[in-house]
From TrEMBL, chains A, B:
InterPro entries the record matches: Tscrpt_reg_HTH_GntR (IPR000524), WH-like_DNA-bd_sf (IPR036388), WH_DNA-bd_sf (IPR036390)
Key word Transcription present: yes
Pfam family, one: GntR
Native organism taxonomy: Bacteria, Bacillati, Bacillota, Bacilli, Bacillales
Residues of the HTH gntR-type domain: 11-79
GO molecular function, one term: DNA binding
Alphabetical list of SUPFAM superfamilies matching this protein: Winged helix' DNA-binding domain (SSF46785)
SMART domains for this protein: HTH_GNTR
Protein name: GntR family transcriptional regulator
PROSITE patterns on file: HTH_GNTR (PS50949)
Length: 125, 125
DNA sequence: CCTTTGTTCTATAAATGGTAGAACAAAATT
DNA sequence: AATTTTGTTCTACCATTTATAGAACAAAGG
């Protein structure tokens, strides 16, 4: 999986990393059961600090996407059940981007097609 | 339009305000041509600092959603043409939320229905 | 004429983001 | 068994961001 960090971005490095790992899973490049590199190895690979990678991993664990097993590694979790709480968090994430797309002039149909197109880039389960 | 600011949130106050104004426009509660309150009046109303509202307004202007006319007010803009650059910014905004929803276990169909449902809360143009 | 307006400036305080180094105990490897 | 690697934890430092505060200004509005 190729990670591309932009130091100049206004998005924090650890967030860029978190998002790109999630996108890698969505695309099927890495799958549940697979291990992520160690924080030290990944940090050296990306040219960032160990603590920055560590923060990203803990963010992913908080979201329920990976499981950090001390002295063993960060393993991608299997998908658990969809709770109402999780669904509301996801909806809260969608809210501002949908409203902005609509206000900036995209039609409902265009937005739906954009979302469908992006979903087609992801690997079916 | 009702604005609800959560001081305890990890989302900056000016971002919360920006998003809720955008959502208000999307719902049709405020329309192009309408004026937003003055930074001082809005700040007093919300119980936040004048500069915080000012920052939100400038963020909205940067996005092309309002026009700040000095000594006159902040007027909601009409929708301009959809450029390829704007579409790519919107797509970049969708990317992480779609990937996360998918990885957290929502099916493509569920995601599409969630988006459609949220779009139906918005006022047709 | 007076108030309101957005802008601009300085200032302060807390939180965030990123890097850095060191130390530790446990797991994995050799 | 000895060594390396691992995630964790701690302190430390620095720049930026977030939020508030007050003051001053010129221009628009009533």
């Amino acid at each position: 999986m190729i990670i591309h960090i932009e130091a100049e971005s206004d998005i924090p490095i650890y967030t860029q990393l978190t998002n790109q790992i999630i996108e890698g899973i969505a695309r099927g490049e890495i799958a549940p059961g697979d291990s992520l590199p160690s924080v030290r190895a990944f940090a050296a690979d990306l040219g960032v600090n160990m603590h920055t990678v560590n923060k990203s991993y803990h963010e992913l664990e908080k979201k329920g996407i990976i499981k950090i097993v001390p002295k063993s590694g960060a393993i991608i979790s299997s998908i658990e059940q969809m709770t109402e709480e999780k669904k509301q968090l996801i909806e809260a994430g969608f809210k501002p981007v949908i409203a902005e797309a609509f206000v900036l002039g995209m039609s409902k149909k265009e937005i739906e097609e954009l979302v469908s197109g992006m979903l087609n880039q992801m690997k079916e389960r």
